[in-house]
């Protein structure tokens, strides 16, 4: 090769490969779906009796529309035989997630998206279900009774939740996935995607959903798992599968969710001696950094193995100021965090939502990571991270002095006393405690010391005894508050609303959905309208006392109002 040949071609080729892989995704997905149809129709012999079973119980989920103290519209309705199917319509006996459509991302309380989120990760919510028997799955059927089309990914886990012996290894395998698509019908359907064959039996299934294209809440009634007790043998007909598709799938499989071989990929000792860096040496350092900023984390790991110069760029802490690890929840573990540690000393935004469950991340591993990488943290997302305990929150309060944004949504396994440590984070501006077990004493302490709060979510916090006391403290201490979520708070009255309205004049968003103790006859809603002219979103869901006068007051006084929910 001529020495004047532009070595920048290496980067061009790498970029082309990435584009080619993305461009082929849709076509390959269609081809593989047809191939998997062949597999699913011929993978078992008549000798293998098929086991058909409904979910035994719901063991984890990210959100639901219902209350923690009832069965209406809750994820727990997915356990057992259908309650509604094949009927269509809005039924309280179904499982419903908290949100739908795009309006949720357009509220004043919405957070900015993370950079470097892989385009193929679009899951917004999930639910995990267990079944009585472990089987090699041949089909998964989802009974959808209202506004179907939200399910975009189905996974199976190798761990048996009912086994008394902890598994040596826990694996998650994707059975089926698809980008969100619009379903132009609201009627019930039995969703039967063509799933791929896996090499381990399972009785733990996970559904992931994206409701952004829906016109209303999706409602799920039951999940049916079909499978065989014996490992099925692939038919010879599977030889029809194109070898190029197998090769690409194998490439994805080796990477799993992009983090399987993170240890190797980040290890500079794996680099081999190669030719010089060509014209990369002539490019400004900042320009190369800007180019690499467009790569996803797995691609950054791969590029780090090409040469020493690019390895240096790929390991630069400036590439990890925003780090979104949620898409890799199925593979991320203590070892992954350890090898990321030296690159994340400048990290400011960190998303560990959904990660670490079933022993993947230990308290010690999380603590080691934050001790090195927590000093610059401004935003920390830990939604549904069930490895967290009181020690973890204590480490966060000690190692993250600059933290402004903390999301503990659906961390329902955290003990109540753990939340006392949050009061040490005096610079907090956003705090999400949806579906947590925080108690009144801890919350009062947080409100007293965290006076900079602008966004506060207390939806479905069932351990709080007196919301009027909480509202009074919010009105007295949180003068900068812009958004407040009190969804399903069980005992707030007109007195608490009066304290809020007078103490927090900057409120732009207020969720009082399913608050049964509020009555329009007390004048509380009219007072809200008169004292909170900046309101853009107001939820009064399921409050049957709302009257014409309340609507007229809102129309006259809240001219910036964009979202109003008076359903019911």
Q: What would you note in describing this structure?
A:
- Keywords: Leucine-rich repeat, Ubl conjugation pathway.
- Pfam families: DUF7885, F-box-like.
- This is F-box domain-containing protein.
- Strand 17 (509-511), helix 13 (524-531) and strand 18 form a beta-alpha-beta unit.
- The protein is 26% helix and 17% strand.
- The longest helix is centred in the first third of the chain and has 34 residues, at 9-42.
- It is globular, with a radius of gyration of 26 Å.
- Strands 10-11-12-13-14-15-16-17-18-19 form a ten-stranded parallel sheet, with no helix packed on it. Strands 1, 2, 3, 4, 5, 6, 7, 8 and 9 form a nine-stranded antiparallel sheet that branches.
- It is built from 14 helices and 19 strands.
- It has helices at residues 9-42, 243-255, 262-265, 285-292, 297-303, 308-314, 334-340, 363-373, 390-399, 440-449, 467-477, 494-503, 524-531, 548-557, and strands at 50-54, 57-61, 95-96, 125-146, 151-157, 172-177, 189-191, 202-209, 219-228, 322-324, 349-351, 379-381, 405-407, 430-432, 455-457, 483-485, 509-511, 537-539, 563-565.
- It is α/β, with parallel strands linked by helices and 568 residues long.
List the helices and strands and how they pair.
Blueprint: H1 9-42, E1 50-54, E2 57-61, E3 95-96, E4 125-146, E5 151-157, E6 172-177, E7 189-191, E8 202-209, E9 219-228, H2 243-255, H3 262-265, H4 285-292, H5 297-303, H6 308-314, E10 322-324, H7 334-340, E11 349-351, H8 363-373, E12 379-381, H9 390-399, E13 405-407, E14 430-432, H10 440-449, E15 455-457, H11 467-477, E16 483-485, H12 494-503, E17 509-511, H13 524-531, E18 537-539, H14 548-557, E19 563-565
Parallel strand pairs: 10-11, 11-12, 12-13, 13-14, 14-15, 15-16, 16-17, 17-18, 18-19
Antiparallel strand pairs: 1-9, 2-4, 3-9, 4-7, 4-8, 4-9, 5-6, 5-8
